[in-house]
Design goal:
The protein is mainly beta and 119 residues long. It is built from no helices and 11 strands. Strands 2, 4, 5, 6, 9, 10 and 11 form a 7-stranded mixed sheet that branches. Strands 1-3-8-7 form a 4-stranded antiparallel sheet, with no helix packed on it. A hairpin with a 6-residue loop joins β5 and β6.
Length: 119
């Protein structure tokens, strides 16, 4: 079992920055691919970014590419999402998720953290 706790959300003006953190319980954090997803009001949850177990590979949705950066610190059991040049359309609840490297889907999800970008 892995428990994920996100933090770092809040209210920011357009063009501003936020850094989200997601800390995992357990001692096998490096066995998991980590991802960030988001869900805006009235919309389906969408993929934002993912990072491999080592941090050596990262992927981004086109909508955030060049503005968001995902990273991880396996010693701290934490994955980060640095969000720069935020836009009102980035407003959503952001969730982190964990996928065992041998699995085909994300098995564990955090409770989410609200990000609101004002225009």
């Amino acid at each position: 079992q892995v428990q994920l706790v996100e933090s770092g959300g809040g209210l920011v003006q357009a063009g501003g920055s936020l850094r989200l953190s997601c800390t995992a319980s357990g001692r096998t954090f490096s066995s998991y691919v980590m991802g960030w997803f988001r869900q805006a009001p009235g919309k389906e949850r969408e993929f934002v970014s993912t990072i491999s177990w080592s941090g050596g590979s990262t992927y981004y949705a086109d909508s955030v590419k060049g503005r968001f950066t995902i990273s991880r610190d396996n010693a701290k059991n934490t994955v980060y999402l640095q969000m720069n040049s935020l836009k009102p359309e980035d407003t959503a609840v952001y969730y982190c998720a964990a996928q065992l490297v041998t699995a085909s889907s994300y098995d564990y999800w955090g409770q989410g953290t609200q990000v609101t970008v004002s225009s």
